[in-house]
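Below is our example:
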Amino acid sequence: MATMVCLTLLVPTHAQQRVIDFLLTHDAAQVEFSMHAVAARGPLVRMQLDEERVLGFASRTEVKLILPQPVCESLLPPLRALLAGCDGGFWITPVAHFEAFNERPTAACVP
């Protein structure tokens, strides 16, 4: 089994649908992802709006993908092209363990 990694993307909120559309065109069995609204600050974030400068952070979307290292490497070039010119960036971290609680949720976990 290939080494699993977490690819974290930090993108402007207006670009999140573009990322979702891109990810949904790939093999869902190999790419697990989630999206979260975050307050971001740091070298990957340019605070361009007056409101962002006053608050000291920018509203961004964080996308976390858990996937095999080779799949991650193959996604980077098209993601770079897709997000060219966008504020943000990415980082990759190793995943020590990745496992479902249960392949089929029981009645106790279904709303």
Summary: The beta strands are 4-12, 32-40, 58-68, 89-94.
